[in-house]
Amino acid sequence: MNEIRFHVAISAQEYLQYYQGMVNSILVTTAEGKVVQLPAGTLQKFVDQSGVNGSFRVIYDDNNKLVRVERISN
Q1: What pLDDT does 41 receive?
Q2: Rounded mean pLDDT of 58-62?
Q3: Do 66 and 58 form a contact (C-beta atoms < 8 A)?
Q4: How many whole angstroms from its chain centre is CA 52?
Q5: Rounded CA gap, 46 and 61, in Å?
Q6: How far is CA 1 from each of CA 34, 42, 64, rounded to the nearest angstrom?
Q7: Residue 7 to residue 26: CA distance in whole angstroms
Q8: What is the DSSP letter of 18?
Q9: What would the pLDDT profile of 3-57 be if each residue is shown by its tens digit?
Q10: Cα–Cα distance for residue pair 4/19, rounded to 1 Å
């Protein structure tokens, strides 16, 4: 298994664009400085009234298929 770690701060208003399907992916910069594109729905379960904020870890397999997403901290 492989993983990337990143911090994200997306306001509720901004995330609404993802939710409505106007934007279908997000770009994040990993802790190592790489820019990675993720499906917007990847973070949906972490949305609250203020949007999506925190540090996350994405686990993916050797075929680059998403396995799971975990919030590390707020």
Answers
A1: 87
A2: 94
A3: yes
A4: 9
A5: 22
A6: 18, 18, 9
A7: 12
A8: H
A9: 999 999 999 999 888 878 888 899 999 989 999 999 888 898 999 999 999 999 9
A10: 23
Residue 49 CA, chain-centre distance (Å), reads 17
What six digits make up the tokens of 45? 């379960």
Map out the domains of the chain with their CATH numbers: 2-73 (2.40.50)
Residue scoring higher pLDDT (58 or 23) = 58
Give the pLDDT confidence score for residue 53 in this predicted structure. 95
- pLDDT beyond 80 at 69: yes
Six-digit token string for 42: 């990847």
Tokens 């203020």 map to which residue? Answer: 50
- The structure tokens 């820019």 sit at 35
Listed in sequence order, the residues at least 6 apart from 16 whose beta carbon sits closer than 8 Å to its beta carbon are none
pLDDT at 15: 87
Judge residue 62's burial from the number of C-beta atoms within 10 Å of its C-beta, 0-12 exposed, 13-18 middle, 19 or more buried.
exposed
